[in-house]
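Thread: "does anyone have the structure for this chain?"

Original post by V.I.:
We have the sequence but no experimental structure in hand. Need at least a predicted one for the grant figures.
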Amino acid sequence: MQTTLESTDKHRVKLTVEVPPDEFGKDLERAYRKIAQQVKIPGFRKGKVPRQVIDAQIGRDAVLGEFLEDSVPTYYREALREHDLAPIAEPDIELGDVEEGRPLVFTAVVEVRPRLKLEGSDYRGIEVTRPQVEITNDDVDRYLDSLRERFAELETVGRPARAGDYVVVDLRGTVHDEEIPEATRPDLLYEVGSGEFGDKLDAELEGKKAGEILAFNDTLGAGAGERAGAGERAGAEISFRVLVKEIKAKKLPEVDDEFAKVASEFDTLDELKTNLHEQLRRNRERVTDAEVRDQVLQTLIDGIEVELPDTLVDEEVQHRVSHATERAEQAGMTLERLLEAQGFDELRFRADARDHAIRAIKADLVLEAVARQEDLQVSPEEIAREISTLAGALGREPKEVAKSLERSGQVVALAGDIIRSKALDLLVEHAVIRSDAGRREPQALAEGDQATDESTEETS
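Reply from O.Q.:
Generated one for you, tokens below.
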């Protein structure tokens, strides 16, 4: 099969494909056989209908339609692979004369993903600054305080309620004297300041003592309505009647050796603090590594000028909008309500999504260019490791995940992710990394280290 490539527009190319007569003839014969298996013609067994009868009874156009559906896309995909093209839209295919014994020629005009070409090795030696990692006693104390919160006990107090306290209340919500089950809770243990039923309940509870009765109206916002389980009532005015039965305050444990034994595997407070200091340092180092990687990539992106096809950007924006919509639905909300609860409107959200989409696309293009320049490859073993990791995260068998990825064609995308990660590893390895103080540090970070936003591990 011979192919030629020419540019027709900024991001459009024209592929001319010539299929040899013998290959074309075999595929056309396969189309006839498939049609013969599908039709019933008196006097002929199924699958044994001669070609001339099919042409006369069914029509040659039907055969060509089958051929176009099965074989031409295969030729087209082979041409894409030959020229290493990544289409971002469906092609416009024009088929020439279909005449057996002669080559089949067709053209495909398609919009493709841009390909960057980096000059020389300018991407090596990118200079970035690595933030200094310093863990202070205050950092350790703050984490100790969060541990104390986890092991806090509630005790009844005689003073008025304040933010952070827990109150036991009988809560009743109604709309036009109709009780709302989701907003009616007897013996509810409620944290003052949580906003679960709207800000007004919190404001009314502060300063109140046990035995007092509150009555007020409130309009639930989208977020409060969803958290309260009354999302369909969001925006409606609800009448609340609340009996304050008990005020409870947190009693935090003392920070001593006994607390260390309860909260961790250590016998002394000093041992616990030493362990927390090391955990915090490791987590901060991982975050800093991620910041360095991001700086290196952003520096390279900033030095590249590329005009992106609107089709490519729009597709990425829509992907992000769809993902946000799914997250909202999982929370039992619409995207509009979720944005409202976060103080966003859809216009601003889409503008932000577009900015992030452009940055993500440019990052991919840059890393793909580095991978081509350095001839980076991905091995079957590397793909298998990624699939195994993905399967572990999903709680499924690796073979099952591998089959699913192959069926959906996502193995290619997974390989692309690995290649781009390797390209970024190479960029970081050859970067000039300086500390905040200006001291040049060792350039090699942990291979492939992808820092996460994980919090410090619990020591219990």
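V.I.: this helps a lot. Residues 2-111 form a domain with the Alpha-Beta Plaits fold (CATH 3.30.70.1050).
O.Q.: and The first helix runs from residue 21 to 38.
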